Amino acid sequence: MSASNPDRHPLVEGPRDPEHDPGASYALDPKYVAGLTDRVLASSGETVEVRSPIDGAPLAHIPQSTDADVEEAFRRARAAQERWARTPVKERERLLLRLHDLVLDRQEEILDLIVLESGKARKHAFDEPLHIALTARYYGRTAAKHLATERRPGVIPGLTRVDVNHVPKGVVGVISPWNYPFTMALCDGLAAIAAGNAVVAKPDAQTMLSALLGHELLEQAGFPRDLWAVVAGPGSKVGTSIIARADYICFTGSTATGKLIGKQCAERLIGCSLELGGKNAMLVLADADIERAAEGATRAVFSNGGQLCVSIERLYVADAIYDRFVERFVARTQAMTLGATLAWENDMGTLISQDQLDTAVAHVEDAVAKGARVLAGGKARPDLGPFFFEPTILEGVTPEMTCFGNETFGPVVSVYRFHSEAEAVERANDGDYGLNAAIYSRDTDRARALAARIKSGTVNINEAFAATFASLDAPMGGFRQSGMGRRQGAEGLLRYTETQSVATQKLMRFSPMFGMSDEAYAKTMTASLRLLKALGRA
Ligand code: NAD
Fold it and tell me: Which residue of 51, 54, 64, 526 has the lowest C-beta tally within 10 Å?
């Protein structure tokens, strides 16, 4: 079947047996899969099998790229970028707005692939086409404004004209994780191409198909095919090959890998943005709407099984409402439907891998062994699928426990009581991370004042994480060990540009004129500096 035909569905009718038919896959039509995997620039002849975390069914064999393939990807991307940089920004905007429509039109197919590859609940998968549509619309409407040449005041009013240009960096390497496989593979690259760059992307090995569907949609929207190359393989190999050639790196993933990448970029003196891990805190103040806070906490903690960089893993609740809040939060958590199917019926799906399950199990077992209490969940659920873990609430977590300060990146939250708001802010600021936070309070002015004291790149008031994430004009990123640089907004676009100042000097030059001595020139300049200050000039 044609992968680009929205009327045709990628799922096969009944299970085929790959043991007897090497081209078959239990879950997806092999022709559909080949239409996607052919998009990987790879010549090694080697493939790596990907299985669905839902039931272990094989999904695809992903061709693996060599260093020479990465070289070829950059060669093509550089040629495409030179033409692209001359394409009017209004034309780039038009293609982004087409992408917006395509993503919405083909969302069922996108959701199927995301669910099959990641095992997340369909409602959590929906956040991904939604975020890409928002991103495409945002840059489709603002790229020209952000990239416009700016006039700035020159040193001599009227005689020095300064124009500031935003020049594309060239070819941007985008290295992305598996947790939001469609949006993480696309969103940062969209800003890069909007700014006139090309992209060489290395999505995570576990979720290549969603990323490759994104590549197909870009082409369908009208972007030149070579403007965005996709390579595949282990991060330490293919990622390193990309960093060795790129003009800028956009990395999303763990703090440990981010530090390695930062060092390699420093070695080459290229810029990078690093979107890393978090141990995000939610504050539920004494005047919060308890039901609303409990609903928000359930989403904040368990979206995509907690495999979300901005998910909440620490919940600080005012003493006065602690018992009532915890009762509502536990009730909502216990009422969640777990399951991994393509339908909309599940509140939470499976974790993506054995590694993710092992971390969740280890964090909970360690906490319980050291005295924490399990208020909800706490167990793996092999009856539902190989990597299922229950949505879990812990109480009585102390600093000796692994989950106190380390990111679980799973469906596990620790609930703590606080006695004053100053104490809550201090505890929220504990540790080394600083990605996201949430505050629930009916007094939004007070909540905003508290937000300014929290060391994190985003703070959501009376919402879990979506208010900042979906407000595309608002920059997003981490303080401290949660990263460097920002995605979204003007900042998310301008990181991919070099700022160039062009000054045009009229009449007067910066040296003595008309036979003036150096000393007289210095005196004249001194007098003009005093005058400009007196006139209020910056
Ligand atoms: P990871 O760092 O292991 O992998 C992320 C990507 O980096 C993958 O594509 C991987 O192949 C590649 N990679 C791995 N080692 C590499 C190396 N040495 N050189 C170059 N590339 C390399 O991260 P993960 O465990 O897959 O993802 C989960 C982490 O990502 C969590 O910590 C989570 O908080 C974080 N995350 C952050 C954001 C954000 O926006 N801040 C978003 C999603 C995930």
Answer: 526
Whether the Cβ atoms of residue 282 and residue 450 lie closer than 8 Å to each other: no
The encoded tokens of residue 135 equal 């991103």
Instruction: Tell whether the model's pLDDT for residue 17 goes beyond 90.
Output: no
Nearest to 291 by CA among 316, 327, 334, 335: 327
Check if the beta carbon of residue 240 is closer than 8 Å to that of residue 228. no
The separation between CA 365 and the C-alpha centre of its own chain, rounded to angstroms, equals: 30
- Residue 449 tokens read as 């004042």
Tokens of 172: 């941007």
Contact residues for 90 (Cβ-Cβ < 8 A; gap 6+): 144
Is residue 372 helix, strand or coil? coil
Q: For residue 318, which phi and psi values (nearest 5 degrees)?
A: -60, 135
CA distance 437 to 300: 10
Any residues with CB less than 8 A from the CB of 405 and at least 6 apart, and which?
279, 399, 430, 431, 432
Of 448, 119, 148, 489, the C-alpha closest to 307 is: 119
Our measurement of the distance from residue 508's CA atom to the centroid of its chain's CA atoms, rounded to an integer in Å, reads 50
The yes-or-no verdict on residue 439 having pLDDT over 50 is yes
Residue 3 has pLDDT above 50, yes or no: no
Amino acid sitting at position 297: A
How far apart (Å, rounded) are the C-alpha atoms in residues 330 and 288? Answer: 17
Instruction: Report how far ligand 1's centroid is from the alpha carbon of 507 (Å).
Output: 55
Active site residues: 275, 309
Per DSSP, the three-state class of 80 is helix
Buried b (16+ CB within 10 A) or exposed e, 69-101: bbebbbebbbebbeebeeeebeebbebbebbbe
Cα 289 off chain centre by: 30
Question: Which DSSP helix (H) or strand (E) runs through 334?
Answer: helix 322-334
Q: CA angle, corner 204, sides to 199 and 210, nearest 5?
A: 80
Q: How far is residue 225 from each of residues 88, 137, 219, 220, 412, measured CA to CA in Å?
A: 18, 21, 6, 9, 42
d(CA 64, CA 254): 23
Q: Do 366 and 390 meet the contact criterion of CB atoms below 8 Å apart?
A: no
For residue 307 and ligand 1, the question of a CB distance below 6 A is answered with no
Distance (Å, whole) CA 296 – CA 156: 55
Q: What whole-number distance in Å separates Cα of residue 54 and Cα of residue 349? A: 8
Residues 6+ apart with CB under 8 A from 239: 175, 202, 261
10 lines ligand 1 (CB under 6 A): no
Atom of ligand 1 at shortest range from CA of 178 = 26
Residue 241 near ligand 1, beta carbon < 6 Å: no
The answer, yes or no, to whether any atom of ligand 1 lies below 6 A from the CB of 409, is: yes
Q: Which of residues 357 and 19 earns the better pLDDT score?
A: 357
Give the SS3 label for residue 63.
Answer: strand
